[in-house]
Amino acid sequence: MSSGQESFLKFNTLSCVAGLCVNHVTTVELRNDSHVTGLVKEVDGFMNVVMDDVEFVDPRHNRMKFSTFFVQNRLVRYIHIPKEIDIVAALPKVLERRKRTKGPPDPSDPAQKLSGARKKIMKIREQRRNEDLINAMKMCENKDAAK
């Protein structure tokens, strides 16, 4: 993932359904009434599609073969989901991946190691939180003493 926006779109739009087609042969219908059939290699959060071993059919039914083909997101009209993909069973797995990748890393989890710079940032944040708590408590004490 290249950006937070892409990550958000990957798990909060239908591009996660298009991502289920990776490593499957499928058809992508384009907005100009042409279509592309081939092996889906990659789908990003913006729903750009990279395909291999593609047959492109234009609106006049002329056929062209390409070894690699890139479909920009704004050109996609439909993505056919292959019959071997069970969407009902696959979507919870996609959403489970989202839960695992969401939020800050858990320092107690050995699989999620924190870098030294990240530890330093987290330590500074914790110190600031503690200072804010102490200052809030002092303000409450001063308020009570003034009454």
Automatic annotation (TrEMBL):
Pfam families in UniProt: LSM
What domain of life does the native source organism fall in?
Eukaryota
For this entry, the protein name equals Sm domain-containing protein
All residue ranges annotated as the Sm domain in the record = 21-80
Q: Where is this region: Disordered?
A: 97-119
Q: Which GO terms describe its biological process?
A: mRNA 3'-end processing by stem-loop binding and cleavage
Give the matching InterPro entries.
LSM_dom_sf, Sm_dom_euk/arc, U7_snRNA_Sm-like
Q: Which Gene Ontology molecular-function terms are recorded?
A: histone pre-mRNA DCP binding; U7 snRNA binding
The organism's lineage is: Eukaryota, Metazoa, Ecdysozoa, Arthropoda, Crustacea
What is a single cellular component term in the Gene Ontology annotation? nuclear body
- Annotated coiled-coil positions are none
